[in-house]
Design brief:
Blueprint lengths: L6 E10 L2 E6 L2 E6 L20 E10 L4 E5 L20 H19 L1
């Protein structure tokens, strides 16, 4: 018996515009599109693919119908990000350190 709040592994069986269907043991589950990310989800296929095994959190259980309401974002916060945000140091110190290299490159190019 699966309980609300439990962490489970399921296999993605189908993807539609509003969510992904998953099988977990003998239960059918749905991950609604709103449970993939706190940000806008353009395509669920950016997060999961059919046949993929995924770790999910159980939001609700219907024992009679053997159905689960599942969340992907509760356990996979970093998924869906296409790249890392570069780290910049802003201020005069970084400019001061870069200046000698910049000057030497400029003079090498003019000779």
């Amino acid at each position: 018996m699966i309980k609300k709040g439990e962490i489970v592994y399921g296999k993605v069986t189908n993807i539609l515009g509003y969510g992904a269907f998953v099988t977990v043991d003998n239960y059918d589950g749905l991950i609604h599109i709103s449970e993939f990310s706190d940000n806008f989800v353009r395509s669920i296929k950016d997060y999961v693919t059919v046949g993929q095994q995924v770790k999910l959190k159980v939001l609700d259980v219907d024992e009679e119908g053997k159905r689960l309401r599942l969340s992907y974002k509760a356990l996979n916060k970093s998924r869906g990000v296409k790249g890392e945000i570069p780290k910049y140091t802003i201020g005069f110190a970084s400019l001061e350190k870069a200046m000698p290299k910049f000057i030497s490159e400029q003079f090498r190019g003019n000779k």
